[in-house]
Amino acid sequence: MTANPAHPVSGGERVHALLTDGTTVCIRPAGTGDQEAVLRLYRRMSDANLRLRFFTVSRRSAEQAATRIAGPAKSGHRALVATHGRDRIIGIAEYETTALWLTPHAVDVDVHEGVVTLTGRLERRSDVTAAVHLCRGTDGVVAVVDHLTYRFDDSRLRPEEPHVHGVTDDWLRKL
Fold first, then answer.
1. In what order do the strands lie in the sheet with 88-96?
2. Structural domain boundaries of the chain?
3. Label partner for 2 (CA 20 to 30 A): which of 57, 97, 104, 155?
4. How far apart (Å, rounded) are the C-alpha atoms in residues 137 and 123?
5. Neighbours of 141 (CB within 10 A)
6. 87: which DSSP letter?
7. Tens of pLDDT along the chain (175 residues)?
8. Superfamily of domain 2-96
């Protein structure tokens, strides 16, 4: 992949990638003008593809996703589009920049008719807030019931440096 600084979009650069079939695509941040193109992509999808993407065949989920992807930037959420030809969107990737450092089985998740119930004990209060926020932002979720507890209240802390997690903490801090 190569960056093309001549075409910045929404504060990000366009990157060109070569696919295995030899096709070149442009990957760039999604912008507010992409909603119709995203909707066209979702309209071309089969019901089976929609079910895998949104866990439902409802076209309303596709409309909500297009609004979210092409909407104003939100803290912790990013979207990228892959385009081919004259900016025809052929792929989308969404991701959260808020990372949760969870141990396996730290959270039990129960879903019934779109209501998500979270139960468990997390390390920090900020992890609870992030987990609830991530669930609320998921298509098809109508409500989140929060039964999460935390060991340490980090809501008043203002770290001087980003916190590094894992066994290499000390080593990375010395770099």
1. 2-9, 12-18, 24-29, 77-84, 88-96
2. 2-96, 107-170
3. 97
4. 22
5. 15
6. T
7. 444 333 334 456 788 888 888 888 898 899 889 999 999 999 988 888 888 888 877 888 888 889 888 888 776 678 889 999 888 899 888 877 666 667 767 888 888 888 999 999 988 888 888 888 888 877 778 899 999 999 888 877 665 545 545 544 554 445 4
8. Gcn5-related N-acetyltransferase (GNAT) (3.40.630.30)
